[in-house]
Design goal:
The protein has 356 residues and is mainly beta. It is built from seven helices and 25 strands. The chain folds into two domains: 131 residues, OB fold (Dihydrolipoamide Acetyltransferase, E2P) (Beta Barrel); 213 residues, D-amino Acid Aminotransferase, Chain A, domain 1. Helix content is 13%, strand content 35%.
Length: 356
């Protein structure tokens, strides 16, 4: 589960031109705006990532000015709060929120019945649940919800990429590895596979029943994926991005709908296919992959360099900012702490323009 609120160190403080009351702070690989004088370099803070939905409590009321509360549904429960977005202040891009550790005073984990519990709050501690933070998720349109067959299966990994700003040590640790770079397409993820001779079509979190109005299923049938998988790759789970009309406001201006695939998982071997194996299987199945920006790259030295090279226009529609890019090694690798080595670099210009 994504750590939305953690205790982190203020690594660096820098002035912002023509700004007397704010300054630029660096936390992990993130840059954000903080109140001038509130922190010193080396101080610990509570850092809240972008797309956090912060609860409606007095400590966050300053976020309510000029914006209405947002809703998010997590595990079937509705949450209302303040969504953290990427913003620009005095020409400085700010991603996230840093607050003093004092905000944790008096807070308790939901199931902690002690009157005055004490917690070991050191650098890196996850305080997401302690602060009552959940991830903001946009509402699911009717054409993507449909009837539920079951939860997402446990034998196929969910599609979820960490952000390089959260794990900047990757750049040094894997500096000698060869990577491919794929466009992070602005849509909704889906996973398609065969199980007991039946085709299964899943959204990010659910296994969906087939229905005439369900867009996931309509595109899967149009692509004849059941017939193709049965003949060519019965043990392969395909993962891709569904894009088109009425999906994420269709910023790429796609007519109709399509799925662009980005991973193939061998269920029999419990492993993802290497890059070239993935490309080959997509060719055999006659399905389209997400745009590949490079198939022979090494990591840039800094997070800022990585972000700069992700600030580009889409290959699908060159008039539109790309949502970001995804980096994966040419040969699949697992990190002992992170799991599958795969991460995204989100384009800040996309977030500033489209992050409602």
């Amino acid at each position: 589960m994504r750590k939305l609120a953690t205790i982190q160190k203020i690594l660096k403080l820098e002035p912002i031109k023509n700004a007397d009351r704010i300054e630029k702070a660096t936390v992990l690989g993130w840059h954000l705006v903080v109140k001038k004088g509130e922190f010193k370099e080396g101080d610990l803070c509570v850092y809240f990532e972008v797309d956090s939905l912060l609860p409606q409590i007095p400590e966050f009321e300053f976020l309510a000015s000029g914006s209405s509360p947002k809703k998010s549904f997590v595990d079937g429960k509705e949450y209302i709060g303040h969504r953290l977005k990427t913003i620009r202040l005095r020409k400085q891009v700010s991603q996230g929120l840093a607050l003093p550790l004092s905000i944790l005073e008096g807070k308790k984990y939901p199931k902690d019945t002690r009157k005055k519990p004490e917690y070991d709050l050191k650098e890196g501690t996850d305080v997401t649940a302690l602060m009552g933070v959940v991830k903001w998720e946009p509402a699911i349109p009717a054409n993507l919800s449909g009837q539920i067959k079951g939860f997402f299966p446990g034998f196929v990994p969910k599609t979820n990429e960490i952000r390089i700003q959260t794990e900047p040590q990757i750049l040094k640790k894997y500096s000698n590895a060869k990577f491919y770079i794929a466009e992070k397409v602005d849509g909704t993820s889906c996973t398609i596979f065969l199980k007991d001779d039946e085709l299964n079509v899943c959204s990010r979190n659910l296994n969906l029943k087939e229905g005439d109005q369900n867009t996931y299923w309509k595109v899967a049938r149009q692509l004849k994926l059941q017939e193709k998988l049965e003949k060519i790759a019965p043990d392969i789970a395909l993962q891709g991005e569904l894009i088109g009309e009425k999906i994420q406001k269709n910023r790429l201006k796609i007519k109709g709908h399509k799925i662009l695939f980005f991973s193939a998982y061998d269920m029999a071997e419990s492993k993802y296919l290497n890059y070239q194996e993935f490309i080959n299987i997509c060719k055999k199945l006659d399905i389209e992959t997400v745009p590949i920006i490079s198939d022979n790259s090494i990591l840039w030295e800094t997070v800022d360099d990585m972000v700069e090279h992700a600030t580009i226009k889409s290959k699908i529609n060159p008039d539109t900012w790309v949502e970001g890019v995804v980096w994966r090694p040419l040969k699949e690798m697992r990190d002992e702490d992170l799991g599958r080595l795969s991460f995204k670099v989100v384009n800040p210009e996309f977030l500033l323009k489209y992050g409602e």
